[in-house]
Amino acid sequence: MDSQVRAEWFDEGMDVERMLREQRRMLWATAACFVLGLLAGTAVLWGGSRPFSGDGSVIIPVALVAGLIAAAAFVVSTRMHRPGETSAMPRWQAVVSDVSAVAVTAALAGVTGLGVLLAGEVLAAGLQGLELPAIGGGVFTAVASALGGRMAFGAGIRLSTRDLASLLFAFLIIGTLFAMLTATDSVWWERSFSELGIGSGGWAFNGTLVIAGLLIATTGSYLGRDLHRMLGDAALRGIAAVVITWACAGLALAAVGLLPIDRVPGPHAIAAFATLALLLAAVIIVTVLMGELRMLRTLTIVLVLLIVIAVVLAFGLHVLSVAALEAVVVGLVLLWLTTLVQLLGILVPDVSRPSARRSPLR
To answer: What confidence tens digit (pLDDT) does each residue in 202-257 have?
Structure first.
């Protein structure tokens, strides 16, 4: 008994030391991102003073620099804390892992950049007429880079499917709020969210959909990773179906952003309905694969029924607007995904599991 207690104390001590070491590294990474942001921001904004908002604003250069530094922080952290993670994997598994890492890098840059744009848009309301010299803009860039870099560096230490889902939620909320604040049509909500992608400020919403599609596809990849850790090679065919369906759903959502409703309404509508259908298919496939979990089965049945009711209310009874329908569907799917990743966090071993097969389809 005493030896078992001592072993537990030893393990806990090792965990504490590891977490303290990670915190020290995160502090150093935050400081490094601050300095890089200060130098890069000052260099990019060098010259005369620039307005905080409006034409020639400092916000867009600050967002670009902060986004790039956040992406670099994630890459450095991944190489530092998870070196050789894919070395024991077959080629197909390593490729999926590497592509997912690239997608997460782009998403972290997007979240940081859009976060800066949203913060700038909010602050501009109370800082009208403010002009910043190059050093002032550099300090603003340094703060934004430190915040984004710390988030990205932490993600590189240990990125779970739950973290990725949270990143997706945050990105959708930040991007949509920014698009609402910069929308040229103040009554877009009477029709659909797609109206936010029209006009000179439409790039914000359309870009959000493209990056969100990338994140959805990456979430599917990480779901596949977790399912493989839990179920093993015997379930590879079903896992491949999960990954492919989520990837197709992500591509369909990206297509919604790449095909604005004011330019190509037909293809835009097809992509939007394809996104809905593919997300529902992905939800059902995951539920079937994890069929022993009664909680997930019940939640999926309720989800599908509520979405069917919402569709009937919108298109059959014309009680809901399309914008309200979209909000309901997205909210329900995100609620389902939140429950799923929490269940996986409980059930999935926190260790890599290289596949013994050359192909996921064999």
So the answer is: 888 888 888 889 889 989 988 988 888 888 888 888 899 999 999 999 999 999 99
| Closest alpha carbon to 145 in 54, 51, 46, 42 | 42
Task: State the DSSP string of 134-181.
Answer: HHHHHHHHHHHHHHHHHHHHHHHH---HHHHHHHHHHHHHHHHHHHHH
Where would I find the beta strands (DSSP E) of 36-129?
Answer: 50-51
| Distance between CA atoms of residues 362 and 360, nearest Å | 6
Question: How do 50-51 and 131-132 pair as beta strands?
Answer: antiparallel
Rounded distance between C-alpha atoms, residue 104 and residue 155, angstroms: 9
Question: Left if phi > 0, otherwise alpha if psi is -120 to 50, otherwise beta: which for 320?
Answer: beta
What are the residues whose beta carbons fall under 8 Å from the beta carbon of 344, sequence distance 6 or more?
Answer: 161, 162, 223, 226, 227, 230
CB 167 within 8 A of CB 111: yes
Beta bridge partners of 131: 51
> What does the alpha-carbon distance between residue 292 and residue 294 come to, in Å, rounded to a whole number?
6
Look at the block and give the residue holding tokens 């430190």. 146
